[in-house]
Fold this protein.
Amino acid sequence: MPEGMIQKKEQGVIERGLLLFYFIFSAALTVVAVENGWSIWMALLVDGGWLFALILHCANIQTYIFRAYAMTCLLQISAIIWSICTGSFSMTVPVLSMLAITLVFYGIPEIAYITVGVSLFLVVYHLLIQHTVDLSSKNKVFQLVLEIGSVFFIQHITYILNKKRLEGVERQRKTIASLQAAERSKDDFMANVSHEIRTPINTICGMSEILLREELEDQVRADVFSIQTAGRNLQSIVSDVLDFTEMQSGKITLVEEYYNIASTINDVINMSMARKSAKQIDLIVDCDAGIPSGLIGDEQKIRRVIMNLVNNALKFTVEGCVSIIINARKTDYGINLIVRVKDTGIGMKKESMEKLFTNFNQVDTRRNRQKEGIGLGLAISQALVETMGGFITVSSEYGKGSEVQFVVPQKVEDPAPIASVWDREGVNIAIYVDMERYDRPEVREAYTQVIFHMITQLKVKSHICQNLEELKRRAERENFTHIFISIEEYEEDKDYFDAISEEAKVITIIERFNDMRISNPRIQRLYKPFFILPIVMILNDEKMVRGIDANYDYQGGFIAPETNVLVVDDNLMNIRVLEGLLQPYKIKVAIATSGAEALEKIEGMGYDAVFMDHMMPEMDGIETLQRIRQKQGNYFRKLPVVAVTANAVGGMREVFLNEGFQDFIAKPIEVSVLERVLKRILPQEKLHSVSKHTEASVTEEEPPEGQDSSPRYTDLPPESFNEEMGIKYCGSLDNYIEILQLSSIQGQEERERIEEFYKERDWKNYGTLVHALKSTMISIGVEKLSAMAKELELAAKRGDEEYVLEHHAQMAAEYERILQLLQESRTVHPQFGKEALDGPEQLGEEALDKAAQEFKA
Amino acid sequence: MKRILLIDDSMIQRRTLNMLLQNNYETLMAPSGLEGIKIAKKEQPDLILLDYDMPIMSGKETFRKLQNEDETKDIPVIFLTGVDDREDVEAVLKCRPQGYLLKPVEQDRLLKTIQKILLD
């Protein structure tokens, strides 16, 4: 289409409009011709012209422009005919004006040339050829001028207007094009940025995870936990933004994998509790016991959606409760998974609900500036749910709360329910939880519902008691096997419950931070939010440690101490994160910082698996993998290689699998994903399962402190000489031994000099020598002496005579000891060592002098 | 091969450094600041590794002298210091050497730092 063209849609309308106008014009002309008795063939010509135009239009002959010009010509001819028939210029003027204006609609300014041409012709015709114009009086002349002027004026104006209009259209087109280009480049930018951003986030989340496993003081732990929460928040915001961008380009890919919804619920609960933090909101989880434990679907996305909804609920709820209700309804293809998230938050007005799902929207955005997040949650959730073949509905009441529900179809792999009580007959439950303490009726209602639901589903004998007397009464008559109470009830009558815990299992529902209020170990703690799974585990008497919670025991299930894994990444930070995450499985980890280095190491054929970063300079992950596969030997063809990448755009998994990777993990690395991959690719016989709740049965013997486990290169005692350190600082074993020899030879002399300065109280020189001693000792791995020397050096520097006087002797003695060890060492003095045993003193000195002469520069 | 001048009063330190460098560079040694300046002027090494904590003529003084002499002011200097006191590190940095490393030095670090400075 040429520049500045009218859009196709409009063209049809314009053409038809003009045809209609032409029709009216030719009809009028025909009528007038018949009325006035003009030669009918003139009128017929005009009618014929119209028919011709009609055919052109209907048969879509040629282009719009061609037809426009054709129509113009036909109309102009009709005008001429009209002019000839009427024989008057004055009669022609209005016709010409009408035509000029009507033809504007075509949007082709150039048509004006034709209309102007024809008008000129007609002026000449009437004025000079036919002399039909009456120039008798001034008025008449004036009238003529007016007529001619108005015709040309109108045509000129319409020409200009048309031109302007087309320019406008062109400008619009250009703006749209540049906006589209901008959006495309934004998408590219996002894809690149995605990698850049995900890497440091991976570090934050991974590192804080690793830190949390250490023994930490409470305050430090709380702080690290804050970092982790912030990191995860950041991760989810970034994910949202990046996913949103992807979604806009229509790139969501569905994954079909086997998963257990129980672990999804676990994860959701953990994340929700973290999100909730200090808010005085109860998180309530109500889940069907009969949901099949093995489902097939896109677990990540489902989890995402649930978290989005829960986060939204938490965001807009100040007090009350947020309930997560999960049901499953059987269908012929499997089940319909129905998830509802209810809250007692501020709710939404009807008008706002409509706007909900449009992008970037948050109700009351101005007032709620303090709420975090970018408001993409619902839009993304809807897109995800719909891609999975489901739908989302929202209902809300302003000031009361909201409920969001989504339904997705899932296939079933393992129909066994996620929770069932084994010995239903043998269980007798008492429940005494005083609901009145919750002011809000919604919360009471929610809790009551959950409890009822659970009891009904589990089909076990149960009694709900309203007060303590009732409980005590019943307890005497019945034989309760389990008594559920909460902390307030327990504290009502501690003695009673402590006593009865001898006969029945007493389970106290409690918040995590209230833990210490129960000191009796026989009382089982059940952390909020409770839901059907841990309760069933209690009823089934599954072994538990300390407190049952819906919390994941970060990792577990197995260890693999006999496996060797190679981690390849050009970024040391990423390596450390992955190393840390692999550590609980006791997997031995080797590292390589480049594709080339990895290839070298793999030559040794010692690895069970390789984790390879995809984006590396020089040789990237894919190329490295190809080189591995090209090597001769079955080992290289079959070596499991997992791609690790921050490039988590949709469809990447397939790309990697096609390239020959066994699997793919996205950064930031999620522990559950990692565990799944490990279980898949590591040799099964090397995986030893570890029950989550009992002591590990197979543990590798931890090497005792010190260097006993690593091979010794020298005969020097490891408690005094850190070989690894020495070799590191000296560059190699040979260098190390040489420096040991030098130190040994020089050492005596140095020690004497230090002693001299000490006696003279020459702290300046004393400090200098002790400083040198510090450096020397550390470079041969003699840490203790070096540390002593360092302290003395600092003391000497700050003039702390007292300290030096107190500690010098200690250092001197240690120095003496070290020198002695060096002297006796065969590694250090091979030719002397033997003789040292036979006749140390004399030979030692001679040889020392000789060597000293050699070495003294 | 590029040449590096080691100025350190400790023989063991000189020896160790020499071992770490000998595969990649030609090394010259000086046991004191004074000697070091003399050798630097004469031999014009490509880089100087200068021990900061030396008696008699300290590393700082040596450095200043090197900077003052036309023949030596353009030779890049890397300070080696065993101090981990913040104040002392600041003092080292105030001199504005081309680089500085904490003792004991790891081979990798040492080589990388030298390489980087020599490339500039």
Summary: Chain A is about 55% helix and 15% strand.
